[in-house]
Every structure is written in C-alpha cells, then in structure tokens.
Specification:
Length: about 425
C-alpha cells in the first residue's frame, strides 16, 4: 500500500508539471500569434489584461526568455519527479520476462527507455501540441487569460530571465546576428504579402478588395510620369486673359484648378482655384475684367520631376495642402500635371464625379470605345483583358504606335498579340 502511494503521488505531480509546461507553451504561442491591433482595440475598450499583454510585447525577447525558462524548468522537474516512480512501476513488470534470458541490468535499462518514451509522449501531446492547437484558435483571448500569472512569474524570475536574455544576445552577436528580434519584430515583406495576395485569388478576398490591395502595393513603385495628365491634355489659362475668359473655359472644362501660364505651357507661373475666384467675385463682381495673373489668389505652382515616385509626391502634397503639381521633363519643359485626386485614384481606382460627362471607356455591344491616353494597365483592369505591357510605352496610344512604328490610318485595325 505504501509502495503504491509512493508511486501514485509523484505521477500525479508529474501530470501537474505537464499542465504547467502546457501553460508556458500556451503563453508563448499566444504572445507570438496575437494580433496587436485587436489587443489595442481591447485595451482601448478598457481591458487591463490586453494592456498588460501589450506591455509585455514591448520587449518580446525578454517575454519569450521568461517563457522558455519556465518550459525548461518544467521539463527538468518532470524528469526528476517522474523517472524514479516509473522505473519502480516498470521494472517489476519486465524482470520476470527478461530475467530468464538477460542480466537484471537489461530490465532496468529497458524500463528507463520506456519511461523516457512515455514521458516524452505525454509531454509532447498534453504539454506541447494540445496547448498550441487550442491557442491558435483564439491567441488574443488566451494571452489575456494567462497574462497575470505569466507576469508574476516573469517578475519573480527577472534576474534569471535577464541572464538568459543577455547570454542569448551575446551568442547572437558572436554569430553576427546583431539585430535579431523575436515574434512581432519579424514582418512580412512586400513580396511576401503580394504572394499571399496571389494565393488568395481563389475567393478568400473579393476581387475589388484584392485589386485595391494590389494597387496599394504598386503605389510606391510608380513614377509621376506614369500617372500625370500629359501636356497635350492640359487645360490652362494665359495670365493676361481675364477672369471672364477663365469662367468661359470653366464652362466647357469644369475642373476645380487651372494652371496659369505666360506665353506658353513651358512657363507656368501659378495655379488658380475656381473656388478662390468665386469667393472674390461674390465681393467684387467687377473683377471679371481683371487679368487672371493679377488676382491675389493665384498660388505658386509646385514643380516636380517626372521621375519622382508618386508616394513621395502624395506625402508632400498632403503636408503642404496642395491639390495640383506641374510635372517637369528632363529639359525643364512642362511634361504634364498631376492632381491629388489622380494619386488617390491610383489606389481606389477611377472615380467619375458629377462634372464628368464623358467616361474614358464606353461599351458598344461586344466592343468598347476607349480613350487612347489611358494606361494599358488601366484598360486591362477596366475591360478585364490582357493587353501586353512593356517599359517602352505606357498608354494605349503608345502600345499602338509601338506595334505599328507609324501613325495609324483612320479605321485601321491593329493586332497587338
């Protein structure tokens, strides 16, 4: 009876140790898999436990070091507590079978091996795999549930955690990995995100949302010359033309802003906003005969090279509250213009407001009438087709000229392959 009790008690303690090991494993995976945004939302709604998790994640290396210290200690303690009782349980079973053929030491060795296998099995199933699988279903909830006992353990073992963390950092520096972070310090690259997006094309993400995400990824790679309104399409006002002339232009081209030039488009001297002009006319209608260039509301133009990336330009335009920029080519001439709305459309897609009377694409039965100055990638997206794209051209007109090597005749057909 006493012998049975001496075996049962350590085995029950061993089960408790396996549960403790499972606790540390659950905490580790919960910290690594938790979504910071969800935790921040929970903290904003008053969850103290979510705030505590975020606090621990501020130094993930030490958090993981504390968890690993607990896992290691549990593993060592399990071996110390469970090994001897299992040997006492298994040896009497094996000796009668093996004693007739082998030395008693063989039964002891085999009992030790079986004990090791059993401990490893129970530790793996109940102390490792089961907690991991459960945590991955709701990592934020598990992290908040277990954070307080984990926080207490981390505080109590802080000196040991510091030694482990410092030793790990020293080894990493010796190996040349100086800036290694654990868990949330690792982020997916743009290429990895694009790959995940392509893999979701089977319907996990809806097409419109997927298209917008793809445009977001491309936003930082596009140049101004790829999205600008070309020089041939610029509608501008000469600085000596009157406000009445500007209003006449506005009637036929209802844009909110117009470049102001002197002599030709290579000498743009300002930008005039229709809203500002209207505000002046409300107070003094006699300004209708005033040259546009003399108006106090004409703003200094922002000049940008056509090789600038559009994400940088968008940031500058937003910071300076500028709605239009003039694009300059390598010779200093005006290549085109770009508005903040043009840049936004690169992410959300083409937008047609109440002023636009002629969309750039018009369906005619099975065919379509398309503005030749649309970019090829825009045509592909709007019509769901696959025209060839190349660095040699950007627009549909450029594709046609590239294939023909000449100006096409009216009514001529072009096979673009």
């Amino acid at each position: 009876m006493d012998n049975a009790f001496s075996i049962q008690t350590p085995l029950l303690i061993s089960l408790l140790i396996i549960a403790v090991n499972g606790f540390f494993v659950a905490v580790e995976y919960a910290l690594l898999a938790s979504n910071r945004v969800r935790l921040q939302q929970a903290a904003a709604q008053g969850s103290r436990s979510a705030g505590r998790v975020l606090k621990m994640l501020e130094d993930p290396d030490k958090a993981i070091a504390a968890v690993q210290l607990g896992i290691t200690a549990a593993g060592i303690l399990l071996g110390v507590v469970a090994e001897e009782p299992l040997l006492q349980l298994l040896e009497p079973m094996l000796e009668p079978v093996l004693g007739a053929f082998f030395d008693p030491i063989v039964a002891t060795a085999l009992a030790g091996l079986i004990a090791l296998i059993l401990l490893s099995y129970f530790l793996m199933v109940f102390g490792e795999l089961t907690p991991k699988m459960l945590v991955l279903r709701a990592p934020e909830r598990v992290a908040q549930l277990f954070i307080y006992p984990m926080w207490i353990f981390a505080r109590v073992t802080a000196p040991f955690v510091w030694v482990v963390d410092a030793s790990t950092g020293l080894v990493l520096r010796v190996l040349g990995a100086k800036n290694v972070t654990i868990g949330h310090g690792t982020v997916a690259t743009i290429d990895e995100l694009k790959m995940m997006l392509e893999q979701s094309a089977a319907g996990v993400i809806e097409k419109d949302a997927r298209d917008m995400l793809e445009r977001v990824f491309d936003f930082g790679e596009r140049l101004v010359r790829e999205v600008m309104v070309p020089r041939t399409q610029i509608v501008a006002v000469e600085r000596h033309e009157t406000v009445a002339d500007l209003m006449a232009i506005f009637q036929t081209h209802p844009y909110s802003r117009f470049p102001v030039y002197e002599e030709d488009l290579d000498h743009i001297v300002g930008i005039v906003i229709i809203k500002d002009v209207m505000s002046l006319l409300v107070n003094d209608f006699s300004l209708m005969d005033t040259p546009v260039g003399d108006l106090p509301v004409v703003r200094e133009p922002l000049m940008v090279p056509e090789t600038r990336f559009i994400d940088e330009l968008f940031q500058e335009m937003r910071e300076k509250d500028i709605g239009m920029a003039i694009v300059i080519d390598e010779y200093g001439g005006t290549a085109g213009l770009v508005t903040r709305e043009d840049l936004v459309e690169e992410v959300v897609g083409a937008m047609f407001d109440e002023w636009e009377r002629h969309p750039q694409v018009r369906r005619i039965g099975a065919a379509a009438e398309v503005d030749a100055l649309l970019r090829v990638d825009e045509v592909n997206e709007l019509l769901d087709i696959d025209l060839p794209e190349d660095d040699a051209y950007e627009t549909l007109a450029g594709l046609i000229l590239y294939r023909l090597r000449r100006i096409p005749e009216p009514g001529e057909s072009v096979d673009v392959g």
